[in-house]
Every structure is written in structure tokens, then in C-alpha cells.
Design goal:
With 191 residues, the chain is of the alpha+beta class. The chain has seven helices and four strands. It has a four-stranded mixed beta sheet with strand order 1-2-3-4. Helix 5 packs parallel to helix 7.
């Protein structure tokens, strides 16, 4: 939504700017409250995932972990791609999922990789961040009508929304971990 500032008559100096700031504050507050409510709803059915998603993990040799890069200002705030990757790899290894290097992954027929994406949105007035965390498994697939045509496609996905405060580094790893455990559980269920 785009807010416009109307030229106000003399004597109401700055009223338009204050109105826009108030509307922006209200919209952000409503967004944060909505995200808090959504993150606390019972999503056990959604978290369990679909059987088809889990079955797509059958016979995979392991996964390579790839974490989305952050913008420079996000890195300056404490978001670290390497820290997230290390945390994800530790959870996978401790749950018995084999980690593949890029070379090992590309040598397999399925070329599977686990893609982790953390999208931070900073609240303008506080050190609070709203995070959208996506964990997706991509692997090589073939088209039914042209089996020789192979491409990479997402076959498993989980998403979570979280709100964190000042201690970003440790908190991001904490909010990513449940999704990685869900993946590891699904992976081990079929392998």
C-alpha cells in the first residue's frame, strides 16, 4: 500500500507527515500481532506434512545444506549464513542424516540439497525482527511425458514465522532447529 501526503493548509505544519507515520506504525503493529497469533495456532496437522512429501525423501543418500545469503545490513545486525549452516548440519548429523559435499551431491542421480532461507523484517522502532523461515528439499526429477528431461524441483517444504529480539545469533538457530528436526524425522522415517 502506498501512502500519499497531501499538501495541508497553512497552520497545520507537519500534520500530514505525522498522519503517515501513525498509519505506518499501526500497520506494522497489526502485522506483528497477526504474526504472533499465527505462530501460536495449533498447526500439528500442517507440521506433520503430507505423506507424498515424506515419500519423496525415500532412497536419498543424504543432502547438501545450502543457506540463503543475507543483505549486508542483515549481516551487520548479526544474521550469519555460516552460523545457520553449522547449526543445520549439526542437527542433521546428530539425527543420522548424511551430509553431502557439493561434489558428492552432483555425483548422485537425485542431486538433493536442503535449502534454508531466513527472511528477516526489522521493526523500525525496536530491535525486534519478524522472521519467515523456509526449509525446502530440492532434488532432480523427470517429467512424466518426457522422462529424459530432468530438472531440479522442490519435493519437501516447511515454513515457520517467528519473532526475535536482540540476541539474534543464538535465536535464529533456535527457531530454525524445529524445522530441521522435522526434515530429519521425515527423512529417517522412509530411509
Amino acid at each position: 500500500m502506498i501512502w500519499t501526503i497531501e499538501k495541508l493548509p497553512r497552520g497545520t505544519k507537519g500534520a500530514g507527515v505525522k498522519t503517515v507515520r501513525l498509519k505506518t506504525f499501526v500497520m506494522r503493529s497489526v502485522l506483528i500481532v497477526t504474526l504472533i497469533i499465527l505462530s501460536h495456532l495449533d498447526t500439528s496437522a500442517a507440521r506433520a506434512g503430507r505423506v507424498e512429501d515424506r515419500e519423496s525423501l525415500r532412497r536419498l543418500p543424504g543432502v547438501e545444506v545450502i543457506v540463503e545469503t543475507f543483505l549486508p545490513e542483515e549481516e551487520a545486525a548479526g544474521f550469519s549464513r555460516d552460523t545457520i549452516r553449522t547449526g543445520v548440519e549439526l542437527v542433521l548429523q546428530s539425527n543420522g542424516v548424511r551430509l553431502l559435499s557439493e561434489a558428492e551431491r552432483l555425483e548422485t542421480s537425485s542431486a538433493p540439497f536442503l535449502y534454508v532461507k531466513v527472511n528477516p523484517l526489522k521493526h523500525s522502532n525496536t530491535e525486534t525482527y519478524c522472521l519467515t523461515i523456509e526449509v525446502e528439499l530440492y532434488q532432480a526429477v523427470s517429467l512424466m511425458n518426457r522422462p529424459e528431461q530432468r530438472m531440479s524441483a522442490r519435493t519437501w517444504k516447511r515454513v515457520q514465522v517467528a519473532i526475535i529480539g536482540e540476541q539474534i545469533t543464538g535465536r535464529v538457530t533456535e527457531v530454525v532447529e524445529p524445522l530441521i528436526k522435522q526434515f530429519a524425522n521425515d527423512f529417517l522415517t522412509v530411509n
